[in-house]
Specification:
497 residues
């Protein structure tokens, strides 16, 4: 971070060396709480820089693949220890660069520590399997093989955690990678790669290219990239999926969400209120799993809404670098303009603003991209605000009287990432989550809160079926190879014999 007129300058990382872009263009990253403050300047990489990075990864791949997986895992244990030493410093920089409150940023980094430890262990568990053959004296087995060079494109809202979900399993599986972090959080991408460098990963195993969509498109279109892993908008994911299909290239997509929380008539109302506050307004609503819709039984609506309205004024909204801050700014001017437009459209369609509804206009928050925590009532399921991802601190209230109505509304969107239900009858709630079209479901907890050892991902337009985290993520970054071994000198023709 730099408050002077000469911000710190950073470079790409290719084949184990920090280097400037071939064409010396740069861009700056700014603090969303203080948008005139530059965090640093970064290379605006072009197709030529991506070409260098892919060549380095391609060259490094055979030796990395041949490195025994347990030995690869030992480096990940070192990586976890190194990130632990950087946890507080990275959290401070994350709060500055993308506006995540410091205490949340600590959790973001902690996820990477846990993922590094988890994937280090997977170095001894890259299991295949052996199975009986139809014939005697014949062996059948299947083993995992790495894909090759993987292109990793990550978002700004979890600038350490999400890269760890992708980079760590890709590399432990024997792949090499070219990593492009979001242009809104390039410093955290830099820090992540510095960690790999510090603990001794071989040159070319991980390569960093900073930049905008030019670099991203070059990665997607490069013929030597075997897999693209992307987290971001559904629109961009659709383009990536199309291009990968045209090239017969693998792709793993984690996309948007329009997540619902059902609060039922027997819910612990106080618990539900706390969960809704955290789910809707944590990270200022800038999570793909953020609670965007409150589907509430009419018998408890008054208690829930009044409880929320009483709690919102107590939220500490301010500079994310301050420990007490609970809600920080949105990422940039475009983000705040989008939230303003969606709220205005909802009001024009008949929604009622119960609180918030606009950006902060008084000092000191007017300096940054701060939007007031907002609750909208009288929202109909067909409204844009109830159908499309807001990515801001906006909670839409939809009132229901029956479970079938609640389920239909919860499932009545094109997304299917996360959903929650509050009820003191856990057996009943289990039946509800069975009916919800979501890859992540929670009972008596908010729609946010992933853990590294269980699968993360959605259905419908929230992704393309792949899962992040857990040992199942290895299915994304490996391909199965079947090995048949005959131990007799006679030709056998399988089913024809």
């Amino acid at each position: 971070m730099n408050n002077t007129s000469t911000p710190a300058a950073f470079k790409n990382y290719i084949n184990g060396q920090w280097q400037s872009a071939l064409i010396p263009a740069t861009f700056e990253s700014y603090n969303p709480a203080h948008p005139t403050v530059s965090v640093g300047t970064f290379p605006e990489s072009t197709t030529q820089d991506v070409e260098l990075a892919v060549d380095a990864a391609k060259t490094a791949f055979p030796n990395w693949k041949a490195t025994p997986a347990p030995k690869r895992g030992e480096l990940f244990f070192k990586l976890a220890n190194y990130i632990q030493t950087q946890k507080e410093a990275w959290a401070r920089e994350m709060a500055t660069e993308m506006g995540k409150p410091y205490t949340e940023a600590l959790g973001d980094v902690q996820e990477a520590i846990e993922m590094a430890t988890f994937m280090g262990g997977e170095g001894r568990r890259l299991h295949g399997f052996q199975t009986p053959s139809e014939f005697p004296n014949k062996w059948l087995m299947a083993i995992r093989q790495p894909v090759g060079v993987c292109g990793i494109i990550t978002p700004w809202n979890f600038p350490i955690a999400v890269p760890s979900w992708k980079l760590f399993p890709a590399i432990i599986a024997g792949n090499t990678v070219v990593f492009k972090p979001a242009e809104q959080s390039p410093l955290m991408g830099q820090r992540m790669v510095e960690a790999f460098d510090a603990v001794g990963f071989p040159a070319g195993v991980i390569n960093l290219v900073q930049g905008n969509e030019v670099a991203g498109k070059a990665l997607v279109n490069h013929p030597d990239i075997g897999l693209i892993s992307f987290t971001g908008s559904t629109a961009t994911g659709t383009w990536i999926a199309t291009r990968c299909a045209e090239q017969h290239k693998l792709c793993a997509l984690e996309l948007g969400g329009k997540n619902a929380c059902i609060v039922w008539e027997d819910a612990n109302v106080n618990l539900a209120i706390e969960g809704l506050l955290w789910g809707a307004f944590g990270t200022a609503g800038q999570r793909c799993t953020a609670t965007s819709r409150l589907i509430v039984h009419r018998s408890v609506k008054k208690a829930v809404v009044e409880g929320l309205l009483a709690k919102i004024p107590t939220l500490h909204i301010g500079d994310p670098s301050i420990v007490e801050t609970q809600v920080g700014p949105l990422i940039d001017a475009d983000a705040i303009a989008k939230v303003e437009r969606m709220v205005a459209t909802a009001v024009n369609q008949g929604a009622i603003v119960l609180c918030g509804g606009k950006r902060f206009t008084e000092a000191p928050l007017n300096e940054g991209f701060y939007f007031q925590p907002t609750i909208l009532d009288n929202v109909l399921p067909s409204m844009e605000i109830a159908q499309e991802e807001v990515f801001g601190p906006v909670l839409s209230v939809i009132t229901v009287g029956s479970l079938d109505e609640a389920i239909a509304i919860a499932n009545g969107v094109r997304y299917g990432l996360s959903a929650a239900v509050y009820s003191q009858d856990v057996g009943w709630a289990l039946g509800v989550v069975e009916r919800l079209d979501a890859g992540l479901t929670y009972i008596n907890a908010p729609t946010i809160g992933a853990e590294t050892h269980v699968p993360f991902g959605g259905v419908k337009q929230s992704g393309n079926g792949h899962r992040e985290a857990s040992n199942l993520v290895l299915d994304t970054y490996t391909q199965w190879k079947t090995i048949s071994i005959e131990t007799t000198p006679t030709l056998r023709k399988a089913q024809m014999d």
